[in-house]
Design goal:
The chain is mainly beta. It has one domain: Folate-binding fold (2-Layer Sandwich), CATH 3.30.2270. It is about 5% helix and about 40% strand. The chain contains one helix and six strands. It has one helix spanning about 30-35; strands at about 5, 10-15, 20-25, 45-50, 55-60, 70-75. The chain has a four-stranded antiparallel β-sheet with strand order 3-4-5-6, with no helix packed on it. The longest helix has 6 residues, at about 30-35. The radius of gyration is 13 Å and the shape is globular. The relative contact order is 0.27. Zinc ion binds near residues 9, 50 and 54.
Length: about 80
């Protein structure tokens, strides 16, 4: 993974982004979203911030084993204005 596609800025180098945390998949209980560890070899859902660009918060889905990014969208699922 050397690039992320920011919904505002387009494809940008990974060095412009800062990892924040791994988050639980949607649909679990409130307890699971807050307290359970998220540790899967096939899917990691993460919050990243585009600190070298628009400073937007992104929800990135990727395979931590291969580094392949399957989805990158704004936190909350909104579209860029
Ligand atoms: Zn951006």
């Amino acid at each position: 993974m050397t690039r992320l596609i920011c919904p505002f800025c387009g494809p940008r180098h990974l060095r412009e982004f800062e990892f924040h945390k791994t988050v639980a998949a949607e649909g679990g209980s409130a307890f699971a979203r807050v307290y359970e560890r998220v540790d899967s070899a096939e899917l990691s859902i993460e919050h990243w911030q585009h600190v070298g660009g628009c400073r937007g918060w992104l929800l990135v889905r990727r395979n931590p084993s291969t580094g392949a990014v399957t989805d990158c969208q704004l936190v909350g699922g909104g579209e860029p204005a």
